[in-house]
Specification:
The complex is a heterodimer of chains A (about 80) and B (about 200). Chain A has helices at about 1-15, 40-55, 65-70, 70-80. With about 80 residues, chain A is mostly helical. In chain A, helix 1 (about 1-15) crosses helix 4. Chain A is globular and about 35 Å long. The radius of gyration of chain B is 16 Å and the shape is globular. Chain B has helices spanning about 35-40, 55-65, 70-75, 90-105, 110, 120-125, 145-155, 190-200, and strands at about 5-10, 15-20, 20, 80-85, 135, 160-170, 175-185. The chains are: A mainly alpha (about 80), B alpha/beta (about 200). Chains A and B meet through helix 2 of A and loops of B.
Chain lengths: ~80, ~200
């Protein structure tokens, strides 16, 4: 789990071009949207693509997106639960 | 109406000039020019890094002008007209988008820049300017188009001030010419001859 969280932080930074943000700057349970990293709706789409391409997981129910992408921790939990 | 070219800037071959003078203390190479200029101008706008190069270039041109233009820095949200021209537009982003489609799957962050006038959108969002705007995609450059539209906006009270310019970013070659047009007595007259002289000054 720890390795997955660490990988996710690096992948989020690279995928979303978060210049000047380091993996250690992202709190595992900090919100990704709003007051946290300040991500927007396009970033949310990029995260869905990331999930699909890197982990082979499709977000079938858009209603669950808010819950899945709440934080790195929630994202890691979702990947762990749904990874083949 | 007495329209004047009040402030102008150029970026060409890695050289940045403001009102005809080299930008004080700025050095860069063509590869890192946009990022170096962002840092040099102390712009604090993290979204910058997510933009395509054309939008970055346009946004930096405006930041250059704002650094010396108090009227631009204090512009009311409906008072500025924006009239820009580009040759390549978002061609580079289109190519990147197609490459991503061919390689794996489209990137939403790249896709949103596959529209040339997004550069005006990014400038407007950053500065909260919501006045009239137009982008010409044309080659060769027609400065008389810029003059006609900018003059029309001001004469018809659609704008108090106009931001005009030509910009292109393709294969890491960045070219930008921008100017602020206002009524007043200071500065060169807003004529085709003066604009060509200022934009093409070496």
């Amino acid at each position: 789990m720890e390795e997955l969280v660490s990988n996710l932080k690096s992948q989020i930074i690279e995928c979303l071009n978060l210049e000047d943000v380091k993996p250690e700057d992202i709190g595992t349970s900090d919100p990704l949207f709003g007051d946290g990293l300040g991500l927007d709706s396009i970033d949310a789409l990029e995260l869905i693509v990331l999930l699909d391409q890197e982990y082979g997981i499709a977000v079938a129910d858009p209603e669950k997106g808010k819950e899945i992408f709440e934080s790195v921790e929630s994202l890691a939990n979702y990947i762990t639960a749904n990874r083949a | 109406m007495n329209l004047k070219i009040r402030t102008y800037c150029n970026i060409e071959n890695g050289v940045v000039t403001l009102n005809g003078e080299n930008l004080d203390g700025f050095e860069s190479n063509q590869n890192d020019l946009l990022k170096d200029l962002y840092v040099h101008l102390k712009v604090d706008y993290p979204k910058f890094y997510k933009m395509d190069n054309l939008s970055k270039l346009g946004l930096l041109g405006v930041e250059l002008l704002k650094s010396v233009s108090t009227s631009l820095a204090q512009m009311g949200e409906d008072d500025l007209g924006i009239v820009l021209q580009t040759k390549y537009g978002c061609l580079e982003t289109d190519i990147n988008h197609q490459a991503r489609v061919d390689e794996k799957s489209p990137s939403p962050a790249i896709f949103v820049y596959t529209l040339s006038n997004i550069v005006i959108g990014e400038i407007s969002i950053k500065n909260k300017w919501f006045g009239e705007s137009i982008l010409f995609i044309e080659e060769p450059r027609k400065l008389d188009n810029l003059i006609r539209h900018a003059t029309g906006l001001i004469l018809n009270n659609k704008a108090k001030t106009c931001l005009i310019g030509c910009l292109d970013s393709y294969q890491n070659q960045h070219s930008l010419k921008m100017a602020i047009i206002e009524t007043g007595n200071d500065g060169p007259a807003f004529s085709l001859e003066n604009l060509a002289d200022i934009f093409d000054k070496k």
